[in-house]
Amino acid sequence: MASLNKVILIGNLGKDPENRFLPSGGAVCNFSIATTESWKDKASGQKQEKTEWHNITMYGRLAEVAGQFLKKGSSVYLEGRLQTRKWQDKATGQDRYTTEIIADEMKMLGSRSGDSSSGVDGQQSSGRQQRPAAAATPASSVPRNFDDFEDDIPF
């Protein structure tokens, strides 16, 4: 029987990402994002909201990009897998469990309003491939209708 462990989230960072490096030199980035669900209560007719917090971990180049461009309040799209880790509390010695999302793809959905220093205004990053930002095209070179496109098809 096949199985699937896939998580897709869109949310906002609750604080700046924390970056560190493994002994092997690989980057690790940790942060949390909030997702908010809202609905109208049928009984009272009042708007209700519920916010859920998700712990995110990234590795490698994606972790470096996240640490460089994400800030508290940043809106982000993430894909990854759910993972639960077991660890021991140093103070009590009891077993503890942490559930987190190991993200392998990220898209930055924009910058906070008024934050021109972040440089991520609409820029997207992906863990699977890094795409260079598209150069701005002058408005005069953009085709206005179907007949303005070139006839040469590259395939």
From TrEMBL:
Annotated segments matching region Disordered: 106-155
UniProt keyword list: DNA damage, DNA recombination, DNA repair, DNA replication, DNA-binding
Biased composition (Low complexity): 110-141
Keyword Ribonucleoprotein in annotation: no
Annotated motif Important for interaction with partner proteins, positions: 150-155
Keyword DNA damage: yes
Gene Ontology terms, MF aspect: single-stranded DNA binding
A Pfam family that the UniProt record links to this protein: SSB
InterPro entries: NA-bd_OB-fold (IPR012340), Primosome_PriB/ssb (IPR000424), ssDNA-bd (IPR011344)
GO cellular component terms attached to this protein's record: nucleoid
One BP term from GO: DNA replication
HAMAP family in alphabetical order: SSB
Free-text function comment from the UniProt entry: Plays an important role in DNA replication, recombination and repair. Binds to ssDNA and to an array of partner proteins to recruit them to their sites of action during DNA metabolism.
Quaternary state and interactors: Homotetramer.
Name of this chain's protein: Single-stranded DNA-binding protein
Protein species of origin: Iodobacter fluviatilis
Lineage of producing organism: Bacteria, Pseudomonadati, Pseudomonadota, Betaproteobacteria, Neisseriales
